[in-house]
């Protein structure tokens, strides 16, 4: 019959074998993940970025870059810089995106963004191209690693940790004049709004004048002709 020491040793060996088997399983999973990362780095980075940003992106304004093209001229409208929408025109029609404000027209402080990460360049009669400038963390469009690609409307772009949607405006349409009925309604609405603003202004002025009158009437004066117990008392002004 086995004694207590033998049972303890046997139990310990089983525990060690179980831990060793678990360690082997974890090692296999790590090796599988490493192989996936080597062959599909862009896709896994995209998944990890979405996972990390999912808790903070709710309620935030979606980042975007919109390209406007008209024959020989193109320009961008974007909210990437401090979240403010700005129209950007550039003589060479090339907009550099990166961390360095001296060399990047669209400067963003992101640790995964290179100093000069990528550029968006407009080529007349073709469109806007995204060009990677040898960045460390690469450029991706719709999850695919790119060096240079013609951007299309709705493309999802990621540079480092900076992700945005690219929109493309290719044409301008001139609309018909407003119907007379709509013009009349707008005129009535504007006249009513101006009348209301005028009435409010008059009311505020009247209240202000009344307040000034009350303040002047309520200012006490010193009565120098009456004394009580050696102290000057306040008297009513005439």
TrEMBL record:
<dbReference type="Pfam" id="PF00498">
    <property type="entry name" value="FHA"/>
</dbReference>
<protein>
    <submittedName>
        <fullName>FHA domain-containing protein</fullName>
    </submittedName>
</protein>
<dbReference type="InterPro" id="IPR008984">
    <property type="entry name" value="SMAD_FHA_dom_sf"/>
</dbReference>
<dbReference type="InterPro" id="IPR000253">
    <property type="entry name" value="FHA_dom"/>
</dbReference>
<feature type="domain" description="FHA">
    <location>
        <begin position="95"/>
        <end position="146"/>
    </location>
</feature>
<dbReference type="InterPro" id="IPR050923">
    <property type="entry name" value="Cell_Proc_Reg/RNA_Proc"/>
</dbReference>
């Amino acid at each position: 019959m086995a004694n207590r020491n033998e049972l303890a040793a046997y139990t310990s060996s089983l525990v060690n074998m179980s831990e060793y088997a678990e360690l082997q399983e974890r090692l296999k999973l790590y090796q599988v993940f490493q192989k996936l990362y080597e062959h599909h780095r862009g896709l896994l980075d995209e998944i990890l970025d979405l996972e990390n940003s999912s808790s903070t992106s709710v309620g935030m304004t979606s980042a975007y870059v919109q390209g406007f093209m008209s024959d020989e001229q193109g320009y961008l409208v974007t909210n990437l810089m401090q979240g403010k929408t700005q129209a950007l025109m550039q003589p060479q029609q090339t907009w550099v995106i990166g961390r360095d404000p001296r060399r990047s027209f669209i400067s963003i402080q992101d640790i995964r963004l290179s100093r000069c990460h990528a550029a968006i360049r407009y080529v007349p009669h073709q469109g806007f191209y995204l060009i990677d400038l040898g960045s460390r963390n690469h450029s991706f469009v719709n999850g695919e690693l790119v060096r240079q690609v013609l951007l299309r409307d709705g493309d999802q772009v990621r540079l480092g940790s900076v992700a945005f949607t690219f929109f493309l405006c290719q044409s301008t349409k001139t609309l018909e004049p407003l119907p007379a009925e709509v013009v009349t309604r707008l005129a009535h609405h504007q006249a009513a709004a101006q009348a209301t603003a005028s009435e409010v202004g008059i009311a505020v002025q009247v209240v202000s004048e009344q307040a000034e009158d009350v303040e002047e009437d309520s200012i006490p004066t010193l009565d120098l002709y009456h004394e009580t117990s050696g102290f000057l008392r306040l008297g009513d002004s005439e």
